[in-house]
Amino acid sequence: MDLDTARQELEEFIPHVKNISDSSIKKMAGRDLTRFKEFKKQGIAVKFGRFTQKENKQIQKNVEEFLSLTGIDSAEKLLFTSRYPEDKDTIHRLKTEHHFCEKISQGIPRPWRLIYYRARKMFDPNNYKGRYTKEEKEKLKKYQALHGNDWKKISELMSRSNLSVAMKYSEIKSAVNYGPWTKEETQKLMNAVKDVLRRKLQTENASSLCSVEQSDTDLWIEREKLYQSLPWTEIETKVGSRYWRQCKQKWNSILTSKLTRGQQLYRGTNGLQAKINLIKRLYETKAEDASEVNWDELSNAIGDVPRAYVQSKFYRLKVSFVPLWKRKTFSEIIEYLYEKKLPELEEKL
């Protein structure tokens, strides 16, 4: 299949396909297109975003079955073959002979690349090592000075995942302010977010480039765009004195305040009512996993707020009121809140 035809056929399943590189299109045409068409026949849409608990279990099943089929003795060897140079050739041969790409993505209506990355995250033993010690932080600084932002190399030296070392370095690379935000910091954050949103708008709508460039102060975009994920490490660099997670939390706080015109939605009687509404609405969704919840629609259970605000309030509810919540499934957490906590909150209200 030629490149233009592949891109055209993939567009039916992936709306942002025009932004994908030619080399990625070629890979997707081979790995994904037939699968996508098969899912379409079954009435199943291609999915993006957070993986569900059901999908995670399917990935685990696929990996375990492939290990059993090939005799490869661990998921780490299968998914992080470069860590085992002496077995590399044998593993690559077995993966080719037994159609690794096809097997690993079986039953999951997502692009193969996303399934593969999710599997690597799930089975990487370096992903779950807890907090960094002082010694590890010093090592991380030293390795970054030696190897720059080669996070793959640094992750191998530290036995941590690529993402973990990159995000941790982002937090510790400079003197970070942990106190209240100053007016200057807040303005830097607002300017950084505005720059990113302006660039996104220019990329997505080239025809409006001139009008966007001419406007230094007024940037009109759809509200949904404000809720989308932003390049926080880039924004962190522009702010200078805060790390990316602080920038993200502050932006969500600013956005919530502006959308609600400064109302205190989660205090006193309003706060009780918001908790009650949120628990009821979550229970009504009958969702088995957090990824099945439309958080944008749910946001009006509290008020005119961003999805991140609602998600943070749900997190506080489960942490505060659900015993052993880490051992419970999403639906079990909702049922507990509905059956045990909701009557208490209604009585208190």
Keywords:
Arc Repressor Mutant, subunit A; 64% helix
Task: Explain what the structure shows.
The chain is mostly helical. It has 4 domains: 3-123, no CATH class; 134-173, Arc Repressor Mutant, subunit A; 183-206 and 219-260, no CATH class; 268-347. 64% of the residues lie in helices and 0% in strands. The protein contains 20 helices and no strands. The longest helix is centred in the middle third of the chain and has 22 residues, at 183-204. The radius of gyration is 23 Å and the shape is globular. The N and C termini lie far apart (64 Å). Mean pLDDT is 81; it is low at 207-217. Residues 124-161 form the HTH myb-type domain. Residues 124-172, 173-255 form the Myb-like domain. InterPro entries: Homeodomain-like_sf, Myb_dom, SANT/Myb, TTF1-like. GO terms for molecular function: chromatin binding. It comes from Promerops cafer.
